[in-house]
Amino acid sequence: MTGSGDSQAAARAIDATEVLVSRGLRVTAQRITVLDAMIAERDDTTAQALHERLRPAHPQLGMATVYRTLNALADAGVLDRLHHEGTSTCYRYCAPGHHHHLTCRSCHAVVELRDCDLATWAQHVAAAHGFSAPQHAVELSGICADCRARGVEDASAHAHTH
Amino acid sequence: MTGSGDSQAAARAIDATEVLVSRGLRVTAQRITVLDAMIAERDDTTAQALHERLRPAHPQLGMATVYRTLNALADAGVLDRLHHEGTSTCYRYCAPGHHHHLTCRSCHAVVELRDCDLATWAQHVAAAHGFSAPQHAVELSGICADCRARGVEDASAHAHTH
DNA sequence: TTTCGTGCAAATATTTTGCACAGAA
DNA sequence: TTCTGTGCAAAATATTTGCACGAAA
Is the CB of residue A162 less than 8 Å from the CB of residue B141? Predict the structure, then answer.
């Protein structure tokens, strides 16, 4: 599954080369490979997983390159870096601007939530404690409709959430 | 050592032994040492940092024990596990129950926010996308009144927040 | 041509584990 | 006594880096 299965979505998808150029990053075959994969796969992935997945079709893609590319893209703001419980650092392709994510705890499907209406709330709470310049980070998670239909169990129902 | 300045706060602090007993954890000198340190030090710490800090006064406290103790306490819900950018896993002493934190980006002062009123919001957003069993994690940050008075700069004003 | 990216393997960094012994219940 | 916790060092993971070479600008 070199990505050709997603032809419909990929057809009008963001062009990796353009993204690289627009960020002032040098365009290389490896970076296109990695970025394409991240764009096609909205869900978050670790460097290791991505490398394993890409390796068959790109035998000479080194693990170090995957790490370096993901870091470069994250530094450039193209990817999100996520630090989950348990797993190593995950990366996710991410639209620009302020927004939040709703993630399925079972299959890791991601929904981007635009129109965040929490800024006012954050402002209010912060001000109540004498804080200024509030920022807020929110991660919503749940079980998506598909997984629910499949009767998936919720492994982290007991998590201590903040 | 460095923490003795907090004597006032520490004086009427939570009793480590009681906490351990109440969670059904066996009471040992090492666990008391670690938990006491975490209670006294509200800011988050890594296992490594804690070990280094405690080692001088407790020469025979092994690093593995620090890791094991922090994990046991986190599993028991006594500590929070935090996954920051850059650093390894941090731990923080944390009141029980669902709540959020408001952290000063300058001095790392932490305010616990009780009475979280976001559950309804989360429920609503999740349902709108077909998700069930919503959980939400929120980290609020800002510049606290003290730091503001001191004219502190906001180092992370450009952060990409979600 | 100059500069930067890449693969490989070795180096680091971080966290976990096996084992024999000590200490809590 | 019995069972669990602990220290130590080695192991397992995860990520970064040095170096010579190849590719982009």
Answer: no
Closest approach of A30 to chain B, Cα-based (Å) = 25
Chain D bases near protein Cβ (<7 Å): 4-10, 13-18, 23-25
B28 CA vs C23 C1’ separation (Å): 8
Domain map of chain A by residue range? 4-157
Q: Rounded to the nearest 10 degrees, how much is the dihedral formed by the CA atoms of B25, B28, B30, B34?
A: 40
Asked whether the beta carbons of residue A131 and residue B102 sit closer than 8 angstroms, the reply is yes
* D4 closest protein residue (CA to C1'): B26
Cβ contact, residue pair B125, A145, below 8 Å = no
Q: Between the CA of A98 and the C1' of D14, what is the distance in angstroms?
A: 30
The secondary element (H helix, E strand) that includes residue A138 is strand A132-143
Torsion sign (Cα): A117, A119, A124, A125? positive
- For A130, which DSSP code? T
* DSSP-assigned letter for residue B53: H
Q: What is the pLDDT of residues A43-71, one digit of tens each?
A: 788 999 999 999 989 988 999 999 999 99
Tell me the pLDDT tens digit for each residue of A105-149: 777 778 888 777 788 888 888 889 889 878 787 878 888 888 888
- pLDDT tens column, B66-100: 999 999 999 998 998 887 766 788 898 877 667 78
Q: Mind telling me how many Å the CA of A135 is from chain B's nearest CA?
A: 5
Give me the percent of chain B exceeding a pLDDT of 90: 31
Per the structure, the residue whose CA is closest to nucleotide D8 at C1' is B62
What is the model's pTM?
0.74
Strand (E) positions, chain B? 45-46, 79-82, 90-93, 100-104, 110-113, 132-143
Which CATH number is correct for B4-157, 3.60.15.10, 3.40.640.10, 1.10.10.10, 2.40.50.140? 1.10.10.10
The mean pLDDT of B19-38, rounded to a whole number, is 94
Contact B13, B39 (CB under 8 A): yes
